């Protein structure tokens, strides 16, 4: 299976002296566990995010038998190894016993799904505690995302309260589980993770200080699913700071108010930049909302054109709302779409489009799974020399090299 | 874009006074904000010219508004339909709707003003021991009676009640369009849907002709709130209420010919009802994609176009090197948008016509290159459309008159 995410240097390295650049392009694998009771909705969300299912299509999914492994190529040099673990009791027991080391070692992220409608909350929590214990034992560094799922089944008025209540419960249980592990096996924990000095078990609440836990209220029937998964993915994408720096200089150069970078298949927002004016936007949920809108638009197109769901569905989009704002979206690199929102004005709009096309080479590293240094003869990777430094001359089509076509 | 309001005055019947329907949070397209100013300007201008022609938005009159009545058995889906189509309630949330206890009246200000009355299924207005309904108040200004039948349930009683309703109405109000929505057809196979439609049609026609009523204006639609069919059915119902519809259709047909469009629709943006299309054959698939495109645009408009920008922002953008007010930096003051689909490079375009209406069209392959010329033609048609609806643009921005530019 994938190498330890903590080590950061996974397989796929062609060896040799790795330049800083090669480091950037290294293939990175992340083991992601998807767990929770049978029927809680794990396979449903996986299918929606990564296989372009519609929410209603998930009704046809059967229970997952044992573990369903999938490798999701994400932005070229990140591969997600997604372990969709069937949640029927017999399987769960098996993960915790026979397969314990196999399942729980080298985990980058655990996504644990609770069905809010579940009748037996106590039992669900007991299972969760066992899973957390196993995780802490084998992958001390793993991040944990708990999704309180199927929130659509709760009356809209009470959703927030119900979530808060359940979240508090989960936090407490998590803290307890971690505390117990610390008491029982301090030596083992130490062996697992050199970086983390063994801590005295926290006796009271706030236990998630010692485990990286985030909770989300989700439903496959609205955009909440995209919010949760964008947060999960955000932490996993390599070179994020580089991407963000590049987006920022592009944004400033073209006078944009907001730039969003979407992963092509999932349409999750992998990176974004917002101007000072753009920060005044009162719609705090706009990123997951954009994902949701564009993804359902993709479905519409696929239905209309009769092309497969995962196929590319649209290439260019523009929208000018009079003297209020303008925006455009376009295919950017092989694995991304870019959406630019900006002030109104024809001239400004046209030059921004040209500049975005011209900036493509700066972002191509997002897609290159190979180390470019040696393959220089082939060309095509000419963009690499600008990495690391801020691009200086976004100016029309000049100087930057031909936009990819 | 329409705005809806619930009126509780002059309700002809309030039998139970039970809890009223919880109103869903209403969605107002923010494009309205932009457009309202223009509309007001124009209204005042018209008022100076001709006081009698002015639409006055502040005092909604009930008189003269076509009325759509939603009737049918309990739980057949009437309130769901009205909430989904007119209040943008997500279909899945109709599960939480309570049974309607009294007539729920919505008034919609759109390209044309009309009312939607949602009846409680539990009340039979023709045979009610407690209350005599004022039939003229209900049916006097009716545009259409929509009878909703739950296709997933036993529908014999519903059909019997519909028959007696038609017989009651036919004598006194022979011109009422009766639109039967065979509803909740999601989850039923295509064959089964058609079987039901055939069965319902026969049961109604047989009964009516037994009673000596021939050629009653009864139409059938297969609908569901979980897809576009309910919007399409409403489109058909409403189109029958538009005066001079043929003229609108001719304009769109003409536009398709000059611009090489495959299909063009004139949408009421807020409800996604299309009020006219060109004369090419009906095509559900094009309606769906155009309607979803309107959704995309509405969402983007809300997120990025519905909040005011700061003064500094404007000053910077209007300063050097542009040195022009933002309004003069744009080519078109109305919303306009286009998207190229990946498969055949078949673009879709949208152009706002006024604060309620938008023109949406699917273009033929390769026409994206001709956009400037297409835009010119679209401008001309849009101008014709606004005149049609007597809402013209403010004078200062109307360009020199031009005919449809020939290719
Ligand atoms: N109402 C509602 N139903 C959901 C949601 N997510 C999933 N479901 C439904 O839950 C059912 C079970 O979903 P699955 O994804 O197969 O469950 P699972 O967790 O993979 O189950 P196992 O594979 O047995 O562990 C399906 O019928 C889904 O349609 C949600 O957010 N809301
Ligand atoms: N499957 C399906 N269910 C629907 C559809 N439309 C409505 N429903 C469901 O039907 C149920 C009853 O809907 P209502 O809209 O309250 O019915 P009503 O006709 O207003 O009922 P009364 O107010 O009692 O007369 C709700 O649970 C809706 O979710 C549809 O198109 N398909
Ligand atoms: Mg499963
Ligand atoms: Mg009702």
From TrEMBL, chain A:
The keyword Nucleotide-binding applies. Signal peptide: none annotated. GO terms for biological process: cellular response to starvation; negative regulation of autophagy; positive regulation of TORC1 signaling. One of its GO terms (molecular function) is GTPase activity. GO terms for cellular component: fungal-type vacuole membrane; Gtr1-Gtr2 GTPase complex; nucleus. Residues 377-405 are annotated as: Disordered. It comes from the Eukaryota. Keywords: Cytoplasm, GTP-binding, Nucleotide-binding. It is found in: Cytoplasm. InterPro entries: Gtr1_RagA, P-loop_NTPase, RagA/B. It holds the Pfam family Gtr1_RagA. Gene3D superfamilies: 3.30.450.190, P-loop containing nucleotide triphosphate hydrolases. The keyword GTP-binding applies. Its main location: cytoplasm. Component of the GSE complex. Belongs to the GTR/RAG GTP-binding protein family. PANTHER family: RAS-RELATED GTP BINDING RAG/GTR YEAST (PTHR11259), RAS-RELATED GTP-BINDING PROTEIN (PTHR11259:SF1). GTPase involved in activation of the TORC1 signaling pathway, which promotes growth and represses autophagy in nutrient-rich conditions. This is GTP-binding protein. The lineage of its organism: Eukaryota, Fungi, Dikarya, Ascomycota, Pezizomycotina.
From TrEMBL, chain B:
Keywords: GTP-binding, Hydrolase, Membrane, Nucleotide-binding. It comes from the Eukaryota. Its main location: membrane. Pfam families: Gtr1_RagA. GO terms for molecular function: GTP binding; GTPase activity. CDD domains: RagC_like. Component of the GSE complex. Belongs to the GTR/RAG GTP-binding protein family. This is GTP-binding protein.
